[in-house]
Amino acid sequence: MDIEGGFVPPPGSEAAAAEAEALELVTTEPPEYTAPYVVPISIAELDREFPLNERAAAYWQESKMHSSFVLVFILVVVAVSDGITLGLDTLPGGAKLAFLFILHGECLMALICYFYILLGDPGDVHRSEKRCFPIPDEVQDWMRRAKCPNSGRVALEPLKENFWGHDKKGPCPTEPCKKHTYCVRCMVWRPVKAHHCRTCQRCVTGFDHHCGVFGRCIAGEACGEGTPDPPGVTPGTGNIKYFQWILWCGGLATLLNIIFFVVSFATN
């Protein structure tokens, strides 16, 4: 059909459908412009956009189950030793009091170490302006892709390789640069001797090992025994000394019990 010199396709035909679709595309409003994502420039923005990973379930299970066994063991050993010692009639009272004083002193020291390991800071590398910035270029690119609405954030794989501080693409915040690396999980600059624990989901300075009994990382200056303190480790920090002391207390208490009871039964 011709109308005023133009061809009008009959309704329901393919040509009519194509013309209607083209008209719809022309009259549809353009999509709203989305500004490019700006990477965080402060700790508050970094924590809001990329919070630290949740601690693994083993972190809580180990501290509740295994460490509770350690506490009960300490108290049972002391209670049994007290009962046997007070029941011995072959030793003078002074010897008993001396033994109990030493034993209880070791128990008190072990309990202090126990609670410090559970509640104290093993040497976590905490986020701060100095530790988090500048952000390496590769990490900034990943942040932009992760926040892009069309990138499919769920399908975006996390970064796996850490970055050295002397990388030309990312300046190191402190000197010398070769003593620092950038953790892509915690998003912090850390000393080379630091390690990211998969159970605690934190970077720990002077990392020695993750203790499955206490459910905590064991770290500190004593990890560099025989060598200079690891870079970034302040002398006296960490919990490895408390871990060593609780082992010493357990060993000395066991030895003291053996000696005391052998002597007491030998003189019976």
Any chance you could write out the topology, listing elements then pairs?
Elements lengths: L1 E2 L2 E2 L6 H14 L15 H7 L7 H31 L5 H27 L9 H4 L4 H11 L15 E2 L15 E4 L4 E4 L3 E3 L4 E3 L2 E5 L4 E4 L20 H27 L2
Antiparallel strand pairs: 1-2, 3-4, 4-5, 6-7, 8-9
Helix pairs in contact: 3-4, 4-7
Helix and strand sequence: EEHHHHHHEEEEEEEH
**C-alpha end-to-end distance:** 126 Å
Read across the widest sheet, the strand sequence of neighbours is 3-4-5
Instruction: Note the overall shape.
Output: elongated
Q: What is the share of helical residues?
A: 40-55%
Number of strands: 9
Mean pLDDT: 77
How would you sum up the major sheet?
A: 3 strands, antiparallel
Q: Please give the radius of gyration in angstroms.
A: 33 Å
Structural class: mainly alpha
Count of helical segments? 7
Low-pLDDT segments: 1-6, 25-33, 223-235
Provide the β-strand percentage band. 5-15%
Descriptors:
mainly alpha, 3-stranded antiparallel sheet, elongated, single chain, disordered N terminus, two-stranded antiparallel sheet
Task: Describe it.
The chain is built from 7 helices and 9 strands, in the order ββααααααβββββββα. It has helices at about 15-25, 45-50, 55-85, 95-120, 130, 135-145, 240-265, and strands at about 1-5, 5, 165, 180-185, 190, 195, 200-205, 205-210, 215-220. α3 packs antiparallel against α4 (about 95-120) and α4 packs antiparallel against α7 (about 240-265). It has a 3-stranded antiparallel β-sheet. Strands 1-2 form a two-stranded antiparallel sheet. The protein has a two-stranded antiparallel sheet with strand order 6-7. With about 270 residues, the chain is mainly α. Helices cover about 45% and strands about 10% of the residues.
